[in-house]
C-alpha cells in the first residue's frame, strides 16, 4: 500500500468466495474502518519533525467482485513549524475469479496534484501472466508474470495460510498504484492468538468500537515489499499488522525506512451482505 507516493497499498479486508476448484477457508466480513495515524519512529534525518493523519478504508462485496476505497491524509510538520498536507485516494474493483482489476489513484500536496493514475489489468486463467494497461498519466502497458496476484486475492491467500498454520507466503502482487507497483511480497505469519488474549500491538481502547473483536481469533502478520526482479535484499516498505479472523485489522505499523507510522482503528462499521 506508500501512503504519499503510494507504491504500496494497504488492504486488510477479505470475504469468502468459491472459484473453480478452490474453496477459501476464511469467512470474512466486508467493512469500513477509520484509523488514526501517528509517527512511530524516524524523521530525524528528514525535513520534518512529526507526522500525523487519518486513513479511511472501505472494502465491499459487489456481487461480481470486490471494491476497495482508501483515502489517506497526512500532515507533515517541518522543523520551522510549517505544515505540509498530503492526500492520497485509491479505488479499485477486482473480479471474483482474480483475473480482472480496475484501479484509479490520485495524490496531492497542499491541494496541488502530484500524480494521477488510471488503468486496468488482466490475467490469464489458471495462474498465467497478463498485462496492466495504464491510460493515465500516459498510455503504457506493463507485462505481469505468471502467478501474479491482485491485492484482494493476495489477502485471501494470506488469511488461508494463517488458518492452516502456514507461516510464510511469498507472491508477486500488482497493486495498481503505478507502473512500478509490481512487488515481490514476503508475508510472515505469527502464531494464532486465541480469543481473549491481548491483540499484538493494540490495546483494549483501540478495540472499543467493537467489543466483539475481542472474542475472535487473530494473527500477527509482517509483509515486506521488494521491487519485482530487482534482487534487492532490503525491502522498500514493510507493514506489520494484526488481522482478526473476520478480516478486520485493529492496528498496523507502516515502515517506510526513514520513518514509521502506527495506524490505530477508531471506527468500525460492517457492511450488509449484498442481495445478488
Note down, in words, how this protein is organized.
The chain has 276 residues and is mainly beta. Helices cover 5% and strands 51% of the residues. It is built from 1 helix and 16 strands. The strands form 2 sheets. The chain has a 14-stranded antiparallel sheet with strand order 10-9-8-7-6-5-4-3-16-15-14-13-12-11, with helices on one face. A two-stranded antiparallel sheet has the order 1-2. The relative contact order is 0.20.
List its salient traits:
globular, 276 residues, 1 helix, 14-stranded antiparallel beta sheet, single chain, mainly beta
Q: What topology emerges from the helices and strands here?
A:
Elements: E1 18-19, E2 22-23, E3 31-42, E4 48-61, E5 65-78, E6 83-95, E7 100-109, E8 112-123, E9 130-136, E10 140-144, H1 151-164, E11 168-174, E12 182-189, E13 218-227, E14 237-244, E15 251-255, E16 259-270
Summary, kept brief:
The chain is mainly beta and 276 residues long.
Q: Uncertain runs with pLDDT below 50, 5 residues or more?
A: 1-8, 10-22, 199-209
Helical segment count: 1
Structural class: mainly beta
Mean pLDDT equals: 83
Calculate the terminal CA-CA distance, rounded to whole Å: 30 Å
Number of β-strand runs = 16
Percent of sequence in beta strands: over 45%
Write down the secondary-structure element order: EEEEEEEEEEHEEEEEE
Amino acid at each position: 500500500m506508500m501512503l504519499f507516493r503510494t507504491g504500496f497499498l494497504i488492504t486488510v479486508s477479505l470475504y469468502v468466495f468459491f472459484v473453480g476448484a478452490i474453496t477459501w477457508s476464511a469467512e470474512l466480513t466486508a467493512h469500513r474502518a477509520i484509523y488514526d495515524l501517528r509517527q512511530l519512529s524516524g524523521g530525524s534525518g528528514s525535513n520534518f519533525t512529526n507526522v500525523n493523519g487519518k486513513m479511511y478504508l472501505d472494502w465491499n462485496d459487489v456481487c461480481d467482485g470486490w471494491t476497495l476505497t482508501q483515502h489517506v491524509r497526512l500532515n507533515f510538520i517541518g522543523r520551522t513549524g510549517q505544515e505540509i498536507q498530503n492526500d492520497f485516494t485509491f479505488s479499485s474493483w477486482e473480479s471474483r475469479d482474480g483475473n480482472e482489476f480496475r484501479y484509479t489513484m490520485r495524490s496531492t500536496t497542499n491541494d496541488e496534484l502530484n500524480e494521477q493514475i488510471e488503468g486496468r489489468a488482466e490475467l490469464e486463467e489458471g495462474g498465467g501472466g497478463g498485462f496492466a494497461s495504464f491510460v493515465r498519466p500516459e498510455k503504457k502497458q506493463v507485462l505481469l508474470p505468471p502467478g501474479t496476484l491482485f491485492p484482494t486475492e493476495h489477502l485471501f491467500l494470506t488469511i488461508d495460510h494463517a488458518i492452516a498454520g502456514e507461516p510464510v507466503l511469498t507472491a508477486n502482487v500488482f497493486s495498481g498504484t503505478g507502473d512500478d507497483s509490481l512487488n515481490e511480497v514476503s508475508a510472515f505469519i505469527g502464531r494464532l492468538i486465541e480469543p481473549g488474549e491481548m491483540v499484538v500491538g493494540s490495546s483494549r481502547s483501540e478495540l472499543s468500537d467493537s467489543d466483539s473483536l475481542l472474542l475472535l481469533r487473530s494473527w500477527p502478520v509482517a509483509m515486506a515489499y521488494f521491487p519485482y526482479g530487482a534482487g534487492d535484499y532490503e525491502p522498500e516498505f514493510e507493514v506489520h499488522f494484526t488481522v482478526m479472523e473476520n478480516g478486520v485489522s485493529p492496528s498496523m505499523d507502516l515502515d517506510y525506512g526513514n520513518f514509521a507510522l502506527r495506524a490505530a482503528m477508531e471506527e468500525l462499521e460492517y457492511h450488509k451482505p449484498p442481495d445478488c
